[in-house]
Amino acid sequence: MMVQNSARLTGVADDAHAALRHHVHRFFSGVILRKLWRFLQQ
Asked: Which domain of life is it from (predicted)?
């Protein structure tokens, strides 16, 4: 039982980490694209 629980917790932590990285990556991509767009429109 204990091993199953820790495995599930690890899976949840991995999912959360992947989701966080995905959101951070999208956020930075958006910021860079907006700056580039503004720069090109000058």
From this structure: Bacteria
Report residue 22 as tokens.
């995905």
Domain interval for residue 12: 1-42
Dump pLDDT digits (tens) for 1-42.
567 888 888 999 999 999 999 999 999 999 999 999 999 998
From start to end of the chain, where are the E strands?
none
Note the pTM of the prediction, 2 decimals.
Answer: 0.58
DSSP conformation class of 42: -
